[in-house]
Each structure stands twice: as C-alpha cells, then as structure tokens.
Design a protein that fits this description.
alpha/beta, 3 domains, 5-stranded mixed sheet, 12 helices, 39% helix, binds zinc ion, TAT_signal, signal, NDM-1-like, Glyoxylase-like metal-dependent hydrolase (Beta-lactamase superfamily II), RibonucZ/Hydroxyglut_hydro
C-alpha cells in the first residue's frame, strides 16, 4: 500500500482517530512501522451486508436525507446530522473524523435546495471529543446547546476544539429555529453523565449517541459506557418516544426500531449468559493453582467466566451484528463486573 493509500485507508477507518497510537500512524510518523504488523493478526468473521451503509464519496463522506429537511452525514464510522431551516442550519454533533466534510455536506444540500448553508446552532449530544472535536471549525458566532453537565465537563477538559455550550438545560429544552422544533431531554446518566435524547417529532427521528450502533455490536467494553446499568436501561427509554429513524452517532447507516430490539436482545443475552457463568464456572482450580497470588487467580477465573458467557452470544450474533467475534468478550467482562458490583450477583457472605 502506498503511503497515500495507507493514509486515506486510515482516515476512512475513522474510529481509529480515537486511539492515540493509530492517530500517530495516520499523520505518517509511524507509517513505516505499519507494515511490521505481526504476521499472526487474527481473522474475524465477515461483516454482514446489513451492517454497511451507502458508499462515501471521493472526499470521504456520504450525506443523505433522513426525513424532509433533516439530513445525516457519515464517514462510515462516525455520524452527524443537520436540519436546514429558513434561519440557518442546526448541526447535531461535529465529529473531528468528518471535520471539514461537515460544511461540504451542508453546502451540497443547501445548494441543491436553495437554502442557507450558514450553521447557526450546534446541538451537543455529549461531551466526548470524538463527537465534538470539529465544533470550533464553525467559529464563535454559533449558538451551542448542551446539557448543564456537558458545560461542566467541557470546562474541565478545557479543549479549544470544543467550545462550551452557550445554552444549557437540566431536564428538557425545546430548541425552536426557523419554524422547526427539536426536543432535547436528559433522562439521567447513561453512556456519559451528559448524554441527551434529541427528538425531532416532525421528522420521526431520535438521535441518541453511543448507545446502539445499528448493525454492529457495541464498541470495546460496552461502548466504554460510564454508567453500565443506566446504559442498559437507555434503549427502553428511547423506545418510549415515537420515531422511525435512529441516529446512533456511529457506523455507516441509520437505525430502525428493529435495530434497537436486536441491540436490547443482544445485551439481555449477555446478561443471561453471565448469570449462568457465575454458577457454572468453578473457581477452585484457579485458586488452587495460583495460591497466594490472588490477582492471578481472579484474572484467570473471570477470563473463564467471560469465555463461558460470551461463546453462545458470539455464536448467535455472528452474521447478525457485525464484529460479534471482535468485541462481545470485552463487553461481557464489563457486564459481568456490573452484575457483580451493582447487583451483588456471585457475592458470598463469609460465614
Ligand atoms: Zn461517547
């Protein structure tokens, strides 16, 4: 692969932008080492075609209509959305991996429809840099809206690429721009403390980022969710809203209500199998072998529980959700720890 091809390949694999070592690769500094990857890289099951969305253009993005004047943009790994109105464009998130392609996508749609291409508002789904790091590209004269905790977290992080929200709310806020309405709501912490439900009732659309990645299993370790029980409860809250189109913030296509059902079943299946593993896997051999090295015994015992619980889930979802064989084990470990620590499963009181 030429270095140009390697760079564009890495840019397309935009999820990698979140990983510092690969971000270093993308700027070429370690490019010479990319070919030194171990010869034993594992093979994974093919991605089901249902996980993939439309092809990106030569600039690396796809823009399409969600409903009426609501559009979505993807680079294949990250997603943003925007609403064109007579008073300007409302942008939802600004992932740095899409970056300057956000304005290009807006320009393309605005030119086709003869509407303003000026971004007047940016709604922040949550504070994470991988979804907001292109916010500063839109300058100072944009009204940014996020949860009150979003402002506190961004002030803490002090990142110039993510200007603080100008408008914050605690529980509910209706944004009205150019005759459009957008209902923002906070229903408690989930993936992050500030992650909000963005409902567009006139467009049959819900945007809830980093909870369900339609067509795919969650990213490593259950999407790195900061509150595991609340993240498991979030899909049911999402389903109480009326919507047909779901914008999950990730991967190459939009979601449906059926995608949410599949995601809920996947998580429920992991929970069921963790409960079985807590009963079925005998800790004795691990503690017998490692003696007073308690961490070695716990590590190997929990690895056996994870393997026991994850195997039937990987089998069931291979060909249904992409990358079931890649990340189900790490998500199973996080859910195992949550059931243990939050629900007290597997705890034994000393006699
Ligand atoms: Zn996030």
């Amino acid at each position: 692969m030429s270095s140009t091809n390697r760079r564009s390949f890495l840019a397309r694999s935009a999820v990698l932008a979140a990983v510092p070592t690969v971000a270093a690769l993308a700027d070429g500094t370690l490019a010479g080492q990319a070919s030194a990857a171990p010869a034993t890289l594992p093979d994974y099951a093919p991605i089901p075609p249902s996980a993939l969305g439309p092809a990106v253009n030569s600039q690396g993005y796809y823009v399409g209509r969600v409903a009426k004047n609501l559009y979505w943009v993807t680079d294949g790994t990250y997603q943003a959305a925007f609403l064109t109105t007579r008073e300007g464009v409302v942008l939802f998130d600004a992932p740095p991996s899409i970056g300057h392609n956000l304005q290009r996508a807006i320009d393309e749609i605005a030119a086709d429809n003869g509407v303003s291409n000026r971004v007047s508002h940016i709604v922040y789904s949550h504070h994470h840099a991988d979804h907001l790091g292109a916010s500063s590209l839109f300058g100072r004269h944009v009204t940014r809206i996020g949860h009150a905790e979003n402002k506190r977290l961004l002030a803490r992080d002090n990142d110039p690429t993510r200007p603080l929200p100008d408008v914050t709310f605690e529980n509910r806020y209706t944004l009205r721009v150019g005759g459009e309405r957008i209902n923002l709501a906070w229903h408690g912490t989930n993936h992050s403390p500030d992650n909000i439900y963005i409902h567009l009732p006139d467009h049959d659309t819900l945007m809830l980022v980093d909870v369900n990645l339609p067509g795919w299993v969650p990213f490593d370790s259950f999407n790195l969710n900061e509150d595991v029980p609340a993240s498991m409860a979030a899909p049911a809250k999402a389903m109480t809203y009326p919507w047909k189109h779901y914008i999950g913030g990730h991967m190459g296509r939009l979601g449906t209500r059926q995608d949410m059902v599949v995601h809920q079943q996947y998580v429920a299946d992991i929970v069921d199998n963790v409960r079985k593993a807590l009963v079925a896997v005998d800790p004795t051999p691990y503690f017998a072998k490692y003696g007073n090295n308690a961490w070695a015994a716990v590590k190997e015992y929990q690895a056996a529980q994870v393997a026991y619980a994850a195997a039937p889930v990987i089998k069931k979802y291979t060909g249904v959700l992409a990358a079931a064989d890649v990340y189900t084990a790490s998500t199973t470990f996080i859910i195992l720890e949550s059931l243990r620590l939050n629900l007290g499963l597997g705890s034994q009181v000393h006699a």
